[in-house]
Amino acid sequence: MDFQEKRAPIIKFEKVNFQYDSQTEKNLIDISFDVYAGETILIVGPSGSGKSTIARCINGQIPNTYPGQLDGVVSVNGKEVQTSSIFDLSLEVGTVLQDTDGQFVGLTVAEDIAFALENDGVEQEKMQSIVKNWSETLEIDDLLQSMPNKLSGGQKQRVSISGILVNNTPILLFDEPLANLDPASGAETMRLINRLSKEHNYTTIIVEHRLEEALLADIDRVLVIDEGRLVSDSTPTELLKSSILQEVGVREPLYLTAMKYAGIDISKYDFVNNFNQMNLFTEDIKLIEKWASQVSHDEYSNEKDTILTVDHFNFSYNLEDDVQTLSDINFSVNQGEMISIVGTNGAGKSTIAKAISGFIKPISGKIIVNSEDINDLSIKEIADTVGFIMQNPNNMISKTMIYEEVALGLINRGWNENDIEEKVFDTLKICGLFPYRNWPISALSYGQKRRVTIASILVLDPNILILDEPTAGQDYAHYTEMMQFLNQLNHERDMTILMITHDMHLMQEYTNRTLVFDAGKLLADTNPSELFSNAQLLKAAHLTESSLYQLGSLLPLMTSEDFIGRFMRYERGIR
């Protein structure tokens, strides 16, 4: 880094402290680091650690939009943040938000990409040329006349990035770009970010929970933030060889976890932040197989009574359309099962969830819940048994305060005030929200809002719980806390849980059965280990081969399916 010492950093934090006006404690404490032009920096840490606060300092939202006490020096490309407007800093930093829907302003993709150019008064011919250039670079030129809100998550991400790139800012800031993407789209996005950064020499800052996928962007340095402090500033390999991730509660790549379970010292490897470039030693492959062979891989069975039956279910949002949204769907679920539902955007996952919840009615076929055809029941009657938690928390929230939102269902059921308070407090504690019980919902992060919506349904004690992407945007600590709670509900209360998810670890570690949807059809009813050993199903579900699968494929006497099953069995046993 000697060459860096001879030039000024493009981003500088020097003894930075910050406290929001609405908070009683500091959110950033004595933060100091430099970022040099052309670097790609990843910022990780648990929720509430201060990652987003650092990002807001970089793009000028602090102190312009989020008032508070900012001390120390924050400079961006020579501009002091404390004395610069958001407009001034927008010329230096292009920000891609976590919630891409909140960033769209145009009716079409072309209009959205061109928005900043129109504001700057760029003449029409030049504007069209710039939009064409970036849409081709990001491979969305065939979507220019499409409506942004009709696109897949990965396509939306590319549109948002294009809308930033037209500004030609030297710094790109990505706020959890993987939060709402399936694994295949997430991997594509990180490779795209890497390509753009290298080809155009952008300085790139990525704030992200999903470390293993984020490392695909060829990260130069990782900043680890915990409780407002910078606890590590190192290369990815240096970080992964340390114990810092475990100490702060960030999940390490799963292939490293498996190696450690097998007793392998990863410090002997020069490069550990990308499995495909590690070149495992033969003796270590043998150690991994020896360890895995000692873990039982028991067969799962559930022979309890059937609680849910989907019988030849057909549905279409447009009755005049020859292509049905759901076509001849058949499956049954036994009491107490914990099932993952997977498939690419538009496959029919959320539609079947809405159907089970009674929000939509079939063209033909039926859904039976607790021996009753729900077509004969009102949504309120169905809600006594089935709880549905949507992916976008903003579509569920109707109150301004957290306590009021979680208590609403109990109020509607006529509970008395004391019982409501006790039940709500218990649920908020379980969901990690009790310290914020008197906060306005508007003050929460996207991930925290998701937990509020989960709490608002869990408080009602449904028999069947359906969750749409329950762990998206959650850090590892809250992810684990939430999943262990759902696991507890499943085991202790025999609650039946269906989870629409793209989280490969969730489906492998917490579910024994997976329903794979594609183009409105139920493509497979299988188990996660078999799914991750079937390339055709993975492609249909828009998943990717996990590092565990790749590791398992190196074992001479054990299949990847068997290895994944044994790894997850071991994980469940030590939780």
Key descriptive features of the protein:
575 residues; alpha/beta; Rossmann fold; 6-stranded mixed sheet; 24 helices; 20 strands; 21% strand; globular
State the gist of this model:
The chain has 575 residues and is α/β, with parallel strands linked by helices. Helices cover 38% and strands 21% of the residues.
Q: How does the SSE layout of this entry go?
A:
Elements: H1 2-5, E1 11-20, E2 28-35, E3 40-44, H2 51-59, H3 61-64, E4 68-76, E5 79-80, H4 86-90, E6 93-96, H5 109-119, H6 124-137, H7 153-165, E7 171-175, H8 183-200, E8 203-207, H9 211-214, E9 221-226, E10 229-234, H10 236-241, H11 244-248, H12 254-261, H13 282-293, E11 306-315, E12 326-334, E13 338-342, H14 349-356, E14 364-369, E15 372-373, H15 379-383, E16 386-389, H16 402-412, H17 417-430, H18 446-458, E17 464-468, H19 476-492, E18 496-500, H20 504-510, E19 513-518, E20 521-526, H21 528-531, H22 535-540, H23 547-552, H24 560-574
Parallel strand pairs: 3-8, 3-9, 6-7, 7-8, 13-18, 13-19, 16-17, 17-18
Antiparallel strand pairs: 1-2, 1-4, 4-5, 9-10, 11-12, 11-14, 14-15, 19-20
Pfam families: ABC_tran, DUF3744
Domain ABC transporter: 11-252, 308-544
Keywords: ATP-binding, Cell membrane, Membrane, Nucleotide-binding, Repeat, Translocase, Transport
Largest beta sheet: strand ordering: 6-7-8-3-9-10
Give the uncertain stretches in residue-range form: none
Beta-strand residue fraction: 15-25%
Mind telling me which CATH architecture of the domain at 2-250 this is? Answer: 3-Layer(aba) Sandwich
- The helix content, as a percent range, equals 25-40%
CATH names the topology of the domain at 2-250 as Rossmann fold
The chain-level structural class is: alpha/beta
Query: How many strand units?
Result: 20
What is the straight-line distance between the termini?
41 Å
3D shape: globular
Described by strand count, sense and barrel closure, the largest sheet is: 6 strands, mixed
CATH C-level class of the domain at 2-250 is Alpha Beta
Q: Count of DSSP helices?
A: 24
Arithmetic mean of pLDDT? 88
CATH superfamily of the domain at 2-250: P-loop containing nucleotide triphosphate hydrolases
Round the Cα radius of gyration to an integer and report it: 24 Å
Protein name: ABC transporter ATP-binding protein
Function: Probably part of an ABC transporter complex. Responsible for energy coupling to the transport system.
Subcellular location: Cell membrane
InterPro entries: AAA+_ATPase (IPR003593), ABC_Co_transporter (IPR022216), ABC_transporter-like_ATP-bd (IPR003439), ABC_transporter-like_CS (IPR017871), ABC_transpr_CbiO/EcfA_su (IPR015856), ECF_ABC_transporter_ATP-bd (IPR050095), P-loop_NTPase (IPR027417)
